[in-house]
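Data availability (excerpt). The following record was deposited with the supplementary files.
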Amino acid sequence: MSADEELGYVYLPVSTPTNDYYGGHRLGDGLYGESLVCLDVTTGKKVWHYQLVHHGLWDYDPPAAPNLIDITVEGKRIKAVAQVTKQAFVYVFDRVTGQPVWPIEEHPVPASNVRGERASKTQPFPTKPAPFDIQGARDEDLIDLTPEIHKEAIDIASRYDRGGLFTPPSERGTIQVPGVFGGGSWSGAAIDPETGMFYVSTYRMPFVIHVRKPQPWESSYDFIGLPGYLPGPRGLPLLKPPFGSMTAIDMNTGDHSWRIPVGRSLAMAAIQKLSIHEPLGLPFRSWIIVTKTVMIVVQAGYHDPAHSTGAPVTYMAGGKQYIAFPVGGAAIAEELIAVSL
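Predicted structure:
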């Protein structure tokens, strides 16, 4: 959650209704599901809400707390709230009224072929900012470091159903891009309140969602969905690089300012074999902190110096500025690492 202390409003990103990949038992849009909801903390009453996904079938719950940022759009000062999403959108609203800062359009999306399912006919697409990562698994989205690798990636993808964003899960298996981890992820985004810049990390990790009838001991639903990561050819990712990246968005205009890879792709043995030396990024989650003079990014993934598992913080001690962040998981001990600037 995020809060505006002056307004007395709190902003809640609300999750996907159960179950994540089949909604035959919950027909309709699903009120408040996968929505941004604004509450008045003094009364507990809803001030406004906006649904980001209708009748969710993709586990596209808003993954992180929204960012509160004051911006100037076409000469008008706006108290805004920006919600980063797994589907690689940033939805931006006036945090007082709930009105979109830029128009949000309902676009037609594919129907489901799963029995009993009724996917929403449309989904909300922001006109600005543009998506900050790939949406969908078209041939042109697949890894293309060489023509041979691209053909192998197309062969892998052809085994499943695929299409653009919001292509519903299927019994054959649907490639979902962004995957269930995002796009935007738990790591959220960072802002520079003085410039109105918005920094969001993303990583390209496609999933296949198989829908099937459950065993009696698994579930009482007619169908359940099983998500699984879909690797590419020769130990490479399926999607083209950058595999992990950072995008800067000017929230005063809604335009992307720049994009850079994040992570040392040379740590991937499959990249080393191809003798590629340009930075391609790593497909792992990244956390960001922005100060007046520096941006610090720490990344998950089992690589040097360790497996980062949370956002960095900065503090002063003895006249020095420090950055501290948590690491750990699996075979790596849980601890805090602090470095000085």
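Summary of structural features: The mean pLDDT is 94.
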